Amino acid sequence: MSSRSSVDFHAISTAALAVARRLLSEWLPGGDWSGDEYKPRNPTRDDKRPGSFVINAQTGKSMPKRASGSITRPGTPAVI
What we know:
Blueprint: H1 9-18, H2 20-27, E1 32-34, E2 37-39, E3 53-56, E4 61-64, E5 76-77
Antiparallel strand pairs: 1-2, 2-3, 3-4, 4-5
């Protein structure tokens, strides 16, 4: 029987958050920064402008917005 190595997700998360501003700008180019919040175009639909959802660079969590502009489900982890 082979042993499996465990993945240190905490270490990966910590390393990614340390460079989150650079990663977000590379992975989702063309977004706008407002403090620690990055507002790119939503990659899951054909948005014409940035801002339909927000990713917090300190926490790595996304905050999708409704059409009205209000934030829905704050604290949802960003999955890119």
